[in-house]
Write a structure and sequence with these properties.
Elements (H helix, E strand, L loop, with lengths): L1 H17 L5 H8 L3 H13 L3 E4 L3 E4 L1 H23 L4 H11 L5 H11 L14 E2 L6 E7 L13 E7 L2 E6 L2 E6 H4 L3 E4 L4
Antiparallel strand pairs: 1-2, 3-8, 4-5, 4-8, 5-6, 6-7
Helix pairs in contact: 1-2, 1-4, 2-3, 4-5, 4-6
């Protein structure tokens, strides 16, 4: 299935950039394969219902094929953003995103999206409420992820109150006030608390 997804994603990219029927040679250049291999795959993709294919003319994605290609592209972009958030350089983040996009399901992707929701701008409107502490406004939050270096102070499951978010993030935990650097606050993932 991975190879099928690579072809669908390539077809989608070419189709959107060139605004035309995608030809065998376009995909062969893009994926660095022989035109005869592309022709074979076009036939297979047509049988699967992913493309409309006319020999010697080219292909366009069907709604079914477009849905898969868009999902894979989104997975790639989310993984790329995730690795950049972790401090991985752009080139390596792109490489890792490309490798992982074919090997996860929606539940894994949802977990990654939750983790980067507060620093991600890929979707017009994010359905997740999670964010990094450095971006949190005043209020109460449940701690979802925290570095082990903060164990005993800010633990997963604790409720913290953001008192001020400026040069440092000032929080109250169990009635005690702490100042957290912006860099460290970027490594703490929280969600607005429903507890009072």
């Amino acid at each position: 299935m991975e190879r099928v997804e690579e072809y669908l994603e390539a077809i989608l990219d070419i189709q959107e950039k060139k605004r035309k029927i995608v030809r065998t040679t376009d995909v062969a250049k893009r994926l660095n394969v022989k035109p005869s291999s592309v022709t074979e795959m076009f036939t297979k993709l047509k049988e699967l219902g992913y493309v409309d294919y006319v020999p010697y003319r080219g292909v366009v994605l069907t709604p079914k094929g477009r849905e898969i290609a868009e999902r894979i592209r989104k997975y790639y972009r989310v993984f790329e953003r995730f690795f950049e958030y972790l401090g991985v350089d752009k080139r390596k983040a792109m490489e890792l995103g490309c490798e992982l996009e074919h090997h996860v399901d929606d539940s894994v992707m949802e977990s990654v999206c939750r983790f980067i929701a507060g620093v991600c701008d890929l979707c017009e409107k994010c359905r997740f409420r999670e964010l990094v502490l450095s971006n949190a406004d005043r209020g109460r939050y449940d701690v979802l992820i925290a570095p082990t270096s903060l164990k005993g102070v800010i633990d997963v499951g604790k409720i913290i109150e953001v008192v001020e978010n400026g040069e440092v993030v000032r929080v109250k935990i169990d009635g005690e006030t702490f100042e957290i650097s912006k860099d460290l606050a970027k490594k703490i993932v929280v969600r607005p608390s429903s507890s009072f």
